[in-house]
Amino acid sequence: MKMIKWLFLIALITLTGCIDEKEEYTINPDGSGKIFYSVNLKAMDLGALMGTQSTTAPTVDIKNKLKKLLENSRGVDTWKDVSYKKLEDGRAHIEATGYFSDINKVILDKSVKKSKKPEIKFTKTGDKITIEFVADTGQAPDKNTAAPKLTDEQIDEQVKMAKMGYQQGKIMTQSLVKDMKFDSTLHLPGKITKTSNFTKVDENTVQIGFDGEKAIKAMDLLMADEAYLKEMIKKGNDPMQNPDQMKMNEMFFGEAAPVSVTVEKADKALFDYKAEMQAAKAKFPAMKDKLYAELDGLAKKQPKNDRNKQLQDLMTNLPPQQEKADANDAVVKPVPDVNSVPAAQLIRKAITLERGRKMEEAIEIYLSVAENPDTKDKDVAKARTYLARSYMKTKEFEKAKEQLETLIKDFSNNRTVVLRAKKQLIRVKKLLGEPAVGAEDLEALKEKLKNKE
Questions:
Q1: Reduced to 3 states, what is the DSSP secondary structure of residue 56?
Q2: Across the strands, what pairs with 41?
Q3: Angle, to 10 degrees, between the axis of helix 152-177 and the axis of helix 226-234?
Q4: Residue 182, SS3?
């Protein structure tokens, strides 16, 4: 189900803010229908989240949110009753009703993210209809790639890394997740005969709910289940990025089964789709133009929501103790030097992205710092160390090994850096199934023992 995937995305630095979202589908026997969509948004203050002061007040860009929904959503023929307002608590409320001719083709571009594929699967056989929420839990493993053959020691090491990664991002994730709420209701064209993970409202309606507090508790239990973690790793799956969907459903909704509902005697439309859709389509252009004009006027009256400025404020105002928040980050102690501020800020930004599991962007920043000829040695050492750690998290062990070997070679005169790198390299080689001690080190050890004799 789509909401599970969001749990792994919400810790990303997007300024999307807290989400309270509702969907209400009305579905006809032929798969056509309409969706009433509403969301309450509160802009996220990055400075407050990270314990710093931001000079830029966070605001919700309502026009941008609405434009994405109205213009980028796929499978929606038209919209009506689109509105917005500012709630007393400062949140922005957006709602709209969309019409679709085939629910199997609907992909909404909503406030959190745009799905890559339809989130509802509609199947009809005779007068029997089954509707299932389609899981979107991450990149599916390559079916042509065999699961790696790992030793018990290697599996234990990966379990340790998975738990460590979860704990590192937990504080930020909890801050973003705790107030999130999602609710979906389906009005169906027949009598409900079977459900799993839905709550039956009446003989034609089901509902499913999800909130942040429940998500946090479920994820804590899941990541504490070593048997589950080991099973997923043995299969070659990342427990966080590609979790077992039935296990997730059980933890979140109560049943180790799909989120689905079946109705029979589905032979009567709940509304005249063609008539309603055409009437809404005729009015949509004028409604959209008026709406955008109003929002442009509103934007001029409120402070500019400069995302880059907030990120810059965050990077500049991070307190000194922030660098020590994660024991694994303090691999190379920083030395105050005004000339290295740009590299230091980039590294901080990458650490923030890494904690939010935005690994691709974090790796890109670490690489840019490490490979810049103008970067000071101490920052190169930090960047390569964090880069190796990031590659370990993404299971690119060969790349991690390459970074650590480069560190050992380039900083051979820095005993602290070399020792830390060698310690990490031993872990990486174990994960690769290679001898923990290299041929050169083995020869040196033999020579040392020989001299003692």
A1: coil
A2: 19, 92
A3: 120
A4: strand
Please state, in angstroms and rounded to a whole number, the distance separating the CA atoms of residues 37 and 79.
11
Q: Are 195 and 206 in contact (CB under 8 A)?
A: yes
The span from the CA of 307 to the CA of 298, in Å, is: 18
Q: Is the pTM of this model over 0.70?
A: no
Work out the pLDDT band at 202, boundaries 50, 70, 90.
very high
Domains, the chain, with CATH or none: 2-301 (no CATH), 318-452 (1.25.40)
CB count, 10 Å around CB of 205?
A: 17
Q: Which residue has the higher pLDDT, 205 or 115?
A: 205
> Is residue 185 classed as helix, strand or coil in its secondary structure?
strand
Q: Residue 268 is encoded by which pair of tokens?
A: 């009567």
Residue 396's contacts (CB-CB under 8 Å, 6 or more residues apart) are: none
Q: Is 247 exposed, middle or buried (0-12, 13-18, 19+ CB in 10 A)?
A: middle
Under DSSP, the state recorded for 9 is T
- 43 and 58 Cβ atoms separated by less than 8 Å: yes
**In 3D, which of 315, 319, 191 has the Cα closest to residue 262?**
191
How many CB atoms neighbour CB 443 within 10 A?
A: 11
pLDDT at 14 over 50: no
Q: Cβ(40)–Cβ(16) under 8 Å?
A: no
Q: What is the DSSP letter of 76?
A: -
